[in-house]
Amino acid sequence: MEKADRLIRDYIPFIRSETAKFLTRFCTDQDDEYSIALIAFHEAILGYSRERGAFLSYAAMLIRSRLIDYQRKEVRHQNQVSLYEEQEEDGRALVDELQDGRNHYEESANLEATKQEIEELAAVMANFGVSFSDVSDHSPKQERTLEACREAIRCGAEDGDLLAELLRTRRLPMARLAALSGVERKTLERHRKYILAMLLIQTNGYEIIRGHLRHVLRRRGGLTA
What we know:
It comes from Candidatus Lachnoclostridium stercoripullorum. Belongs to the sigma-70 factor family. SigI subfamily. The protein is mostly helical. It folds into two domains: 1-78, RNA polymerase sigma factor, region 2, helix turn helix motif (Rna Polymerase Sigma Factor, Chain: A, Orthogonal Bundle), CATH 1.10.1740; 132-220, no CATH class. Helices cover 74% and strands 0% of the residues. The two termini are 33 Å apart.
């Protein structure tokens, strides 16, 4: 239990970030959603196994799932009366009005969440000396190289020790990554900033950015982030 508590303390910024992304605003200690996210992270620690992939991706998924469950319960409690009664002014049911408002809110919230996620990722990458322009400049252009980078990223994301060293030193452990993936170190060096950025995206719960990358790269037949 002590180890789990220590891990939770170490990952408080990650838990706050996931909660804020869900709320599309900053979260505080007083938010119920933050408490639920803490419980979900603890649940992720207890239920994690290597078969589930990268731990932080699993934890992010579980946090979001528990927050969605909580939100649905809250909505049911607050809106279970008179949702389908027609309103006197225009004869529309309240549920229709809510749906229109929800659609508009979700569109605005998605834009804000995307902006927040990009800004957060840019700040994280800056700590590793990488910018979005670096990622673009160092991204693989040939299919063969793309496949090699894909394998390196997959192996890196599945190796907890490598990720721990990456976060601790803020440097990509080239020798270990080359040994794990079988990719030539020269190739890894050439695309280091691209690989580093993709590992950060894969293991830190950037679901919106990952979804965009999946869409773009699926059309290219390339890496699934």
